[in-house]
Amino acid sequence: MTDTEQKSTGESLEKARKLLAEGRLDNCLAVVKPLWLAQPDDTEIISMMVDLLQQAEEFEACQALTTLLAKMKGNGEAPSQLDDCAREVFEAGYRLIDVRQYELAAMLLAICAREAPDDPTVHYELGFTLMSLSRYEEAAEHFERVRSIEEDFDTVLNLSVCYCLCREARKAASMIGRLDSLASSEEERGELRHRKQVQSRMEKLAGKAKLNARDWFFILYGTILLFDPEDHGFKQLKLDQAKGTSKKTPESYTKIAFTLLVLKGVLEGLRWPPEAIEFYSPTSRPLAAILARLADLPLNSYQGPDRPDHALMLMDWASEIIGPHESFVSNDSNRSIFAYGLSTREALPLIPDIVAHFSDNITLPWTGESRITLEDGQGISPEEVIPEILERAWNLESDPDVLKAIQDLVQYYSDKRDLLVIHNTERFVNRPEYSAEIPGASEKTG
After folding, report:
1. Per residue in 342-387, pLDDT tens?
2. Which of 166, 189, 207, 253 has its CA 20 to 30 A from that of 300?
3. Rounded distance between C-alpha atoms, residue 158 and residue 164, angstroms
């Protein structure tokens, strides 16, 4: 390392220490992470990472890095490199997977793979980590290495996923065929059924040269996506982000009205109008109340897992699902779930039947730090926005852009109805787990 590089590293570490002292853990990580990726053997950087994990209360990962650091420093002996600490490096990498630091985990596990080229556990964990980074071709190479040593259900399952996401249809089908003989438990047979469903959806779009986010939502989950991130101004948003000019501003009333009108039109166009509208939380009540008025349907709060009529339950963000909500895990013949926004980052226990926007840059006017503040300093309440958005929706009902969006969506999904999760509870008993595996999701979030 040159004197200039060493000075730069020292200044960055000093900045990281100040951020950590102020409790700004995410900002501290943003400084430390690229430093460690660039200089894997630097014990001072690893020590900084130990302090960060300690303050974040990620104690198992912290302990694993502490053990690695002690091994590298030795007991009065010459310091070791990561290559000389295979066992400790693997444990640290494994624990970093648990805290979703996949890039750092991949860096450490790649070292282990070089040192232990025939260890199936090392290659499996590295393959899983690369999958989590959307590096599916690389992940498949490591899973194939595992399969050549010992073939098991999980390895072949992950290979089928990787080949699907790489659009290697024949290889994906071959792996699904192997799963037939490897599945032994009911859980494994459920995974096999899901992979077969994914394969059927993939074949439906086999003739399309380039798949977009809407296509992948259909293939992987059987979910309706109202707006592809490449449409309706999302490209400009990404350009603004690259320039550093983007601000996390609330959704406009007009955009919310537009979205709910499209949702209503698609359900009517596919002949799936609900009999009631539900909301899951106070922050999703305005969305539900507006849709209920537009569709002239009764409005309720969440009524529990059982209800006699078919309801569409609205959420502002699908991450609301996180928690002890076991009643949402299985498809419900009397309830469909709609999420206005779905994060590209968070792994959820299920995917909604319908998603409006797949993005990390959506906030509603009545929620969070972006909550609109009136002239008297009071924040706007969810109830106050309902008449304002309704007025915009009524003015947009015959808008050509709304009608075209509805027509395009109905045309896209009409021949895919039997492969969608919504209203197909007998065929799709369990919703798949959402794992942010849409290709390109990590690039969308930066």
Report:
1. 988 777 777 899 999 998 888 888 875 444 444 444 556 667 889 9
2. 253
3. 10
CA 188 to chain centroid, in Å, comes to 23
pTM of the model: 0.84
The continuous run of DSSP H or E covering 373 comes out as none
How far CA 415 is from CA of 253, 270, 336, 420, in Å, comes to 33, 10, 20, 10
Torsion of CA 42, 345, 363, 255, to 10 degrees: 130
Q: What is the CA radius of gyration of the chain?
A: 25
Alpha carbon dihedral 408, 389, 239, 214, in 10-degree steps, equals: -30
Distance CA 111, CA 289 (A): 55
> Which residue, 76, 75, 69, 7, is CA-closest to 40?
69
Neighbours of 291 (CB within 10 A): 24
Cβ partners under 8 Å of residue 397, min gap 6: 261
Asked if residue 159 lies in contact with residue 147, where contact means CB atoms within 8 angstroms, the answer is yes
Which residue, among 137, 145, 71, 75, has the nearest Cα to 108 in the 3D structure? 71
Nearest to 276 by CA among 331, 304, 315, 313: 313
In whole angstroms, what is the distance from residue 161 CA to residue 163 CA? 6
pLDDT digits (tens, 9 = 90+) for 269-313: 999 999 999 998 888 999 999 999 999 999 999 888 788 899 999
Alpha helices in 244-327 (DSSP H): 253-269, 285-295
Q: Produce one character per residue of 327-349: b if its CB has 16 or more CB atoms within 10 Å, e if not.
A: ebeebbebbbbbbbbbbbebebe
Sheet of strand 276-279, all strands in order from the earlier edge strand to the far edge = 224-227, 354-358, 335-342, 311-317, 276-279, 299-301
Is residue 221 a contact partner of residue 434, using CB atoms and an 8 Å limit? yes
φ, ψ (nearest 5 deg) of residue 236: -65, -40
Q: CA–CA separation, 214 vs 228, rounded Å?
A: 6
Ramachandran angles phi, psi of 335, nearest 5°: -155, 130
**Whole-number pLDDT of residue 398:** 94
